[in-house]
Sequence to fold (188 residues):
Amino acid sequence: MADSDSSNVTPLISNQKRYAEALLVYEHLGRNIEALESWINSYFSEKIMKEIKVEKEKELMVLGIGSGQGQTECKVLQQLLKEWPKIINTVVEPNPSHINKFEDLAAKEREILDGVSFDWRQQTLQQFRQETQDQLMKKYHFIMLFHVMYFFEDLEDIIQYLKSILEDGGMILAVMECGNVCNILLLC
Ligand SMILES: C[S@@+](CC[C@H](N)C(=O)[O-])C[C@H]1O[C@@H](n2cnc3c(N)ncnc32)[C@H](O)[C@@H]1O
Fold:
């Protein structure tokens, strides 16, 4: 008889390399990345982005959390560049393999992403919060969380924290999947 004791099962997230491999397979088989990209290129760019109330002449301060390998965030950055030609993008991603792939992608798409400068942080949001708490509170105009909210235990605390580092007129965009449905959470 098969052993059904789940205490022997190692959580996938405890092995970063294995997690990155599994996520690639999952994305390949299951996640509808094209639908999200098409949403970014249409609804996000035509409607949602317009609600970010930041002067076009300013450098847009962007924070990506759980950025993964950066495919989705690069599409968002391309759209933001149409309105804000200068962007400083802080990437908070704990998985070394993911952040390396994002750096490679950013280098490959250098011309498309011309105007974006990156601040790479290989750490969790909790570590980032801890590390930056003593610094003069740095704030962001646009904070994005694509498929990462599942990793946070105390969501209320996380949302309060994110709101505290959001500039006036800025926006937090969180996207989560539930079954076959993509949920979009916007906090302005
Ligand atoms: C499902 S992937 C989503 C990646 C990317 N945002 C996308 O939509 O393609 C979740 C990402 O969150 C990262 N992550 C996990 N726990 C995290 C935490 N506590 N803080 C920040 N990122 C985390 C993982 O390493 C992984 O790259």
User: Anything to note?
Assistant: The first helix runs from residue 16 to 29. The helical segments are 16-29, 33-48, 71-83, 96-108, 125-132, 155-164. The chain has a mean pLDDT of 88. Strands lie at 60-65, 87-92, 116-121, 140-146, 166-178, 181-187.
